[in-house]
Structures are given as structure tokens and as C-alpha cells.
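> example.struct
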């Protein structure tokens, strides 16, 4: 159930996994398989197709042990558009506060017939742990600073949609690389599909071993702004920072913030992405966030079809079927 396929294959048969835990373990073929399925769902959505019956009778649990707005809403809506029943579970007010373990909580929810679990947790590896203990399919919705595969996929989908391909593009991930699970998923996914990836930020926010992942490193946005095809502006994760990683917010914005002046020096067709939520005026000025190069809202729209595709493909593996999704 967990083996991948040769990177050339990308049809639905290329997907054989029971869980979606990270992009590190996926082949280019598997990533392309998800992107193509999402493109098909987008086409159906735009053609005005209503709900699809793929997950009719299936219960999808949203287990969020960390705050989330867009990811949780997007997963929930994706499951509903595929006709699943959804159950929302948040840590506060649950038996976790009575001392029930994380695994016992998930086993209890599984015993109610929930067969797909979307999990967000502050500990890296938490979804992997659940995947070992549950028969349900686990979808990682962000585990600590480790991975956030569906965010990486929707970023890559948005770039591919705009440019037609990922191969040969130069993509910069700017900002708080150290605390960013989005950066790690983007690094794995983009490189597997043939992009050149530059990480850019203050030395204190770039892990020293990051070059081992195959990326280039820059400490000055001004040095790379004119050579990139896409800029993905990561949020400064104030809640995860325990020390002083840069002198002040205005100093950060001065060196790494995307603004009108830097946009003028960028390629004419540069794409501006941000996983959101954005700190307006820190990573990006409002005029750039809302301007013509920004695909930030396209990313949110595409998140829905990416999550539909992931749920659909995992469900096909569970049922061993290639049944049609109407
Ligand atoms: C990201 C996350 O939670 O990792 N947000 C998201 O899922 N849309 C990025 C972030 O919080 O900055």
C-alpha cells in the first residue's frame, strides 16, 4: 500500500498509497497524478457539476490539534463536495483534556466508522504515528515544522496552472524557512518536478543543513528578485519563534518584504504566492498582495480541488476500485 511508482507514470493507477503523509516520499509521477486529478475536479466544478458521489457513505474526520482557518475549511468543503459525512474534532473540550492519549482519541473516532482522518498537530511525525496505529487513511494537514503536503501541492498546482509546467522554473521561498512546513513540502515537490529552488531569508531563519536538500540559499531578496519566476512569501511564524531571529519587523520588511519597488525589478510575469495567513506590511505590502501578479486567492480556490483529489485517490485505494466519480 505504501510503495510509489516510477517517476514517469502519472495516471490514476500511479496512486497506490493508503495515506498522504508528505511530499518527501512521493515520486514525480504520484505528485503529477494528484495534480491531474485536481485539474479534472476543477474542470468539473467550473462546468457547474454539483456534488460528486465519490465519498457517499464515507465519514471523514477533521482532527485539528492546532488552530486553522483555511486548511480545515478547505478539507471540510472538499469532503462535502464528494458527498462524505464530516466530523470535526478539536482538542479543547475533548477527552484529550481528560488525559486520553492522542492515539486512543483517534481509535475512538475510527470506531465510530470514520475511515479517513485529516490530522493537524504541532508535533512533527504525529500523522505518521497515527498511520501506524489506524486502519483509516491519514491525511497530513500540517505536522509541526515538518510537512504540509496539501499546501505544497496547491502551491505547485497554482504555478503549473499559470505556467503550464514546473520543469525549468526558478522558485524562491522567502522568509521563515526554519519554522515552515510549507517550505519543506514545496522544496520536495518542486524539485521532484524539475524546478530550481532558492530559499531566501535571514541566516537565523534558514537551517544550516538546508543545502543538503538540493536548494540554493540567499540572504538578500534584492540579490535574487530579478531572476525568479515565482516568489512564495512565507509568513513569519511569530507563534513558533522562541528567540529574536531578526532585529525588528521593520528591518525584516525592509530586507525581505515584497513591495512595489522590488516588483518593478522582478520578471514581467513573476508570480507572487503566499500560503496565508499573510502579515500585511511584513512579508508583503497590501498593493502587491492584491495586485495583478498575486495568485494568493487562486491558491485558496485550488486548495479545494487538491484536497478533493487527495481524498478521492486515497478512497480509490481503500476500495480497490477504479469506479467513476459520479
Ligand atoms: C500554513 C500552515 O499552517 O503551516 N498555513 C496554512 O495552512 N494555510 C502557513 C502558515 O501558518 O503560515
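> example.seq
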Amino acid at each position: 500500500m505504501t510503495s510509489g511508482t516510477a517517476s514517469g507514470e502519472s495516471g490514476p493507477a500511479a496512486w497506490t498509497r493508503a495515506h498522504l503523509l508528505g511530499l518527501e516520499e512521493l515520486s514525480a509521477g504520484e505528485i503529477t497524478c494528484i495534480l491531474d486529478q485536481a485539474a479534472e475536479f476543477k474542470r468539473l466544478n467550473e462546468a457547474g457539476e454539483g456534488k460528486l458521489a465519490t465519498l457517499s457513505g464515507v465519514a471523514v474526520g477533521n482532527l485539528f490539534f492546532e488552530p486553522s482557518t483555511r486548511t480545515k475549511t478547505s478539507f471540510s468543503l472538499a469532503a462535502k463536495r464528494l458527498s462524505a459525512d464530516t466530523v470535526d474534532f478539536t482538542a479543547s473540550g475533548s477527552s484529550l483534556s481528560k488525559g486520553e492519549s492522542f492515539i486512543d482519541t483517534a481509535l475512538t473516532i475510527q470506531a465510530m466508522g470514520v475511515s479517513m482522518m485529516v490530522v493537524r498537530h504541532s508535533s512533527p511525525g504525529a500523522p505518521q504515528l497515527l498511520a501506524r496505529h489506524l486502519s483509516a487513511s491519514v491525511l497530513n494537514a500540517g505536522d509541526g515544522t515538518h510537512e504540509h503536503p496539501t499546501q505544497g501541492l496547491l502551491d505547485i498546482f497554482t504555478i503549473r496552472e499559470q505556467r503550464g509546467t514546473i520543469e525549468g522554473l526558478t522558485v524562491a521561498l522567502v522568509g521563515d524557512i526554519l519554522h515552515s512546513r510549507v517550505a519543506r513540502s514545496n522544496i520536495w515537490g518542486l524539485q521532484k518536478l524539475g524546478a530550481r529552488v532558492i530559499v531566501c531569508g535571514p541566516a537565523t531563519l534558514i537551517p544550516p543543513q538546508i543545502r543538503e536538500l538540493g536548494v540554493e540559499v540567499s540572504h538578500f531578496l534584492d540579490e535574487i528578485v530579478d531572476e525568479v519566476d515565482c516568489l512564495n512569501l512565507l509568513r513569519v511564524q511569530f507563534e513558533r519563534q522562541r528567540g529574536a531571529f531578526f532585529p525588528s519587523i521593520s528591518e525584516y520588511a525592509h530586507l525581505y518584504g515584497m513591495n512595489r519597488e522590488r516588483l518593478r525589478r522582478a520578471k514581467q510575469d513573476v508570480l507572487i504566492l503566499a500560503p496565508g495567513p499573510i502579515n500585511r506590511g511584513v512579508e508583503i505590502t497590501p498593493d502587491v498582495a492584491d495586485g495583478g501578479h498575486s495568485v494568493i486567492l487562486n491558491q485558496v480556490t485550488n486548495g479545494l480541488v487538491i484536497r478533493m483529489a487527495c481524498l478521492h485517490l486515497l478512497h480509490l485505494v481503500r476500495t480497490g476500485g477504479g469506479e467513476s466519480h459520479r
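> remarks
The chain is about 35% helix and 15% strand.
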